[in-house]
Write a structure and sequence with these properties.
By secondary structure, the chain is of the alpha+beta class. The chain contains eight helices and seven strands; from the N terminus they run ααβααββααββββαα. The longest helix is centred in the C-terminal third of the chain and has 18 residues.
Length: 176
């Protein structure tokens, strides 16, 4: 698995000059390296751990897609992944997490991606052919994390359109 198409958006703060730090806000996407201890904590908390997510954390990190003021689509960092899925601390009372967990069994999936509109996407903890499918409200979105991130990075409207499409399908199923 190779997530190099997003590596160019990785930011290593200690290597930035003040001028470069100002330009970071202009990046389309923004990723930060994952601390090894955080990665180990996430792996210990969730066994099995999604292979593609582990590789993404190692190769690229965690961070944001299509950043603009007020618009943040967030691939959770390992500690947020733990706190969100186990509902620890202030995550325990988060209504959006509670709603998302209605469609997710953390024994088989994890909430891993939060949109600007507080919708969560889940990833299978196990997969076939080294791929971890991605879901929204229990409906398959992409067969792999790689495909999901590729589409997400390529199109600013991908997440919004996916959410609308699946919510519409769910609504039609309720009416039937």
């Amino acid at each position: 698995m190779n997530f190099s198409f997003l590596k160019k958006y990785q930011i290593i703060a200690k290597d930035l000059t003040p001028e470069e730090a100002k330009s970071v806000s202009k990046y389309r996407h923004c990723f930060f390296p994952v601390a090894e201890i955080d990665m180990m904590d996430a792996l210990a908390a969730f066994d099995p751990f999604p292979l593609e997510l582990k590789l993404f954390y190692q190769e690229t990190g965690f961070g944001f897609f299509h950043r603009r003021k007020g618009d943040i689509n967030y691939l959770l960092d390992p500690l947020s992944l733990i706190n969100t899925n186990l509902q620890l601390g202030y995550f325990k009372e988060d209504v959006y997490i509670k709603q998302a967990l209605e469609f997710c069994n953390i024994e088989t999936q994890l909430l891993f991606f939060k949109t600007q509109s507080n919708h969560y996407f889940t990833i299978d903890r196990t997969g076939k052919h080294n791929e971890n499918p991605v879901y929204y409200k229990g409906k398959l979105v992409e067969k792999s994390l790689f495909d999901f991130l590729d589409f997400c990075a390529d199109s600013k409207s991908y997440l919004e359109n996916t959410i609308k499409e699946i919510d519409s399908k769910i609504e039609k199923e309720k009416e039937a």
